Amino acid sequence: MKQHLYIEMDNCIGCRSCLAACTQCGGHDERNRNYVYDVNPLVNRQTIPLMCLHCVNPACARSCPAQAIQVTPEGAVLSALVEKCIGCQNCTIACPYGIPKFDEEQNLMYKCDLCYDRTKDGIPPMCASVCPTNTLQWLTEDELKAKRESHELGRWTASRLPDDPLVGETNVKISLPGILQGKVKLF
């Protein structure tokens, strides 16, 4: 059964529990692979989680000359393989969302790998397992279909033009926050 990470941005309260869980996950070397962005910090407290969207046709993997970035059958785009990464940083430049980071000491790219050691067995990623407001949810296809019917799911794209080659589909599904739809958040 395929499951998806679903982000309901209106629920985010900026608690950063997802970041704490990410740093505590084994194999992450206490580095955050996700981020929380303050949308307009001088005006309100709207925050949104930023993480790899695990593109269906990821620019990071396509731009890697060493084929160090693997895409799993489930759709997770993994961090660069240590034995293959040559440290060229093409992936960090190619990603339209600015997600992959480069570790100069290790000469290696790292990013969210959707906790593949957990999600391949149907266990939610660490960030979704600790989110107190259900901003990050791990949903089945049926649950996602129900969300799609009750919300207008946003499509995260690199361009607004419908036939632009930069537009890409992602495996992470997003409900855009009301503030981006012209609605004001209540707190």
From TrEMBL:
Q: Where does the 4Fe-4S ferredoxin-type domain start and stop, copy by copy?
A: 3-33, 39-74, 76-105
Where it mainly occurs, coarsely classed, is other
Protein's cellular compartments:
Cell envelope
Task: Tell me the keywords, alphabetical order.
Answer: 4Fe-4S, Iron, Iron-sulfur, Metal-binding, Repeat
Q: Name one GO molecular function term.
A: 4 iron, 4 sulfur cluster binding
Name-wise, this protein is Putative electron transfer protein
Q: Which GO terms describe its cellular component?
A: cell envelope
